[in-house]
């Protein structure tokens, strides 16, 4: 299968121009090896296998894999996250985690992406459900979300934001503990029976939802002075 691509096109056109110039100058002994090298280079980038990869790609992958193995970067050594420092896998391998305190002296975490100079802060939120809620109230909530997004576009240094929602089956253990903790031993038998029925039936088909909003900030501005990681974290802590 043939497919030159950008690199192949550059080699084809550039090589043809160079060879034509050499031939025009009458340097036939130089032109012959140039043509051979030109054809080999075209074959390396132009001939592709069934996976769409040419010889140059395969050689580059082999060399890169060999260098990665020599450096030991192909190994992942996991460990606990409560003590010590461990490198996470995948695209998070180059990130750094910092702990700071906000204006109310509450601890929060900042994820640093040194390669691009970005800093991300994740905040756990509690989204309201739409069940048994008037449509007008739902409209107010949606309008509030839209207003927050609009204000986010005016926030200095914001690169992007994302919402992560985690949904899992609810076992009902939290509801059971809450009812048992607040249940009055002297309550009427009917009230106890109703609460017991609720604890028994509610978990069926119920879900446990958790949500986080992650906002990513740019560490440096084009016109502003260069800031250190401590400066960026201090700025985020004051917001």
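Q: What amino acid sequence fits the structure above?
A:
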């Amino acid at each position: 299968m043939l497919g030159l691509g950008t690199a192949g096109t550059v080699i084809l056109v550039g090589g043809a121009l160079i060879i034509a110039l050499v031939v025009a100058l009458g340097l036939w002994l130089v032109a012959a090896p140039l043509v051979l090298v030109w054809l080999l280079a075209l074959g390396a980038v132009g001939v592709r296998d069934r996976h769409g990869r040419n010889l140059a790609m395969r050689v580059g992958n082999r060399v890169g894999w060999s260098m990665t193995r020599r450096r030991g970067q192909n190994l992942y050594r996991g460990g606990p996250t409560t003590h010590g420092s461990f490198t996470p896998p995948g695209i998070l391998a180059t990130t750094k985690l910092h702990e700071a305190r906000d204006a109310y002296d509450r601890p929060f975490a900042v994820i640093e992406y040194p390669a691009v100079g970005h800093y991300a802060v994740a905040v756990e939120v509690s989204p309201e459900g739409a069940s048994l809620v008037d449509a007008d109230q739902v409209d107010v909530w949606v309008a509030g979300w839209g207003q927050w997004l609009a204000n986010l576009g005016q926030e200095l240094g914001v690169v992007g934001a994302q919402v992560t929602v985690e949904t899992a089956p609810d076992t009902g253990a939290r509801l059971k503990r809450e009812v048992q903790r607040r249940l009055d031993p002297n309550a009427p038998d009917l009230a106890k029976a109703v609460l017991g029925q609720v604890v028994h039936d509610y978990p069926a088909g119920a879900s446990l939802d958790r949500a986080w909003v992650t906002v990513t900030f740019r560490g440096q501005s084009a016109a502003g002075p260069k800031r250190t990681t401590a400066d960026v974290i201090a700025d985020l802590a004051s917001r």
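Q: And what stands out in the fold?
A: The mean pLDDT is 81.
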